[in-house]
UniProtKB/TrEMBL annotation:
<dbReference type="InterPro" id="IPR002177">
    <property type="entry name" value="DPS_DNA-bd"/>
</dbReference>
<protein>
    <submittedName>
        <fullName>DNA starvation/stationary phase protection protein</fullName>
    </submittedName>
</protein>
<comment type="similarity">
    <text>Belongs to the Dps family.</text>
</comment>
<dbReference type="InterPro" id="IPR023188">
    <property type="entry name" value="DPS_DNA-bd_CS"/>
</dbReference>
<feature type="domain" description="Ferritin/DPS">
    <location>
        <begin position="27"/>
        <end position="164"/>
    </location>
</feature>
<dbReference type="InterPro" id="IPR008331">
    <property type="entry name" value="Ferritin_DPS_dom"/>
</dbReference>
<dbReference type="GO" id="GO:0016722">
    <property type="term" value="F:oxidoreductase activity, acting on metal ions"/>
</dbReference>
<dbReference type="GO" id="GO:0008199">
    <property type="term" value="F:ferric iron binding"/>
</dbReference>
<dbReference type="Pfam" id="PF00210">
    <property type="entry name" value="Ferritin"/>
</dbReference>
<dbReference type="InterPro" id="IPR009078">
    <property type="entry name" value="Ferritin-like_SF"/>
</dbReference>
<dbReference type="InterPro" id="IPR012347">
    <property type="entry name" value="Ferritin-like"/>
</dbReference>
Length: 167
């Protein structure tokens, strides 16, 4: 679903390739949906975890969910800056997110970390794949994507460490 435009071109920041404005807006919308859904999946896993390391994983998930919410806000604010109204409502997230849902049941701590790591990696890879094309249209938006990917990849590393994998 396309984001609605809130301003005319005179009020908008110029893009390196103004013909790509709609594509940049769509990419920001997709990224917003994935980040919101990642935070929802993180909360679901937060409630589902059990095992010897459950407390540490539980607390770590709170930190991750907070970081994803902050990143979603940065993405949404960039969309607004470019003249789009982002849609972070549950219906839009459910329709557009590409994050794989999790099974709703109790899960062992190591399974939670593994499942979350796969989803974080998938979101980071999707965003990384768009860096070049977004950079060709708007370097400022590319910088937002770089920030998001950098944060997600750091989280991947921290999740790998919890599984005992080498950095």
């Amino acid at each position: 679903m396309a984001m609605e435009s809130v301003a005319n071109s005179v009020q908008l920041p110029p893009l390196d390739n103004p013909n790509e404005r709609a594509a940049v807006g769509e990419e920001l919308q997709l990224m917003l949906q994935d980040l919101i859904d990642l935070s929802l999946v993180g909360k679901q896993l937060h409630w589902s975890v059990f095992g010897a390391s459950a407390r540490g994983v539980h607390l770590f998930l709170d930190e991750l969910v907070e970081e994803w919410s902050e990143l979603a806000d940065v993405v949404a604010e960039r969309a607004v800056t470019l003249g789009f109204v982002p849609d972070g409502q549950s219906s839009a997230v459910a329709a557009g997110s590409r994050v794989e849902p999790v099974v709703v049941r109790s899960l062992a701590d190591h399974v939670v970390v593994w499942e979350l790591g796969r989803r974080v990696a998938a979101v980071a890879e999707r965003i990384r794949a768009r860096l070049g094309s977004i950079g060709g249209a708007d370097l400022v938006t590319q910088d937002v994507l770089i920030r998001v990917v950098g944060t997600l990849e750091k989280q991947q590393w921290l999740l790998r460490v919890q599984l005992g994998e080498k950095a």
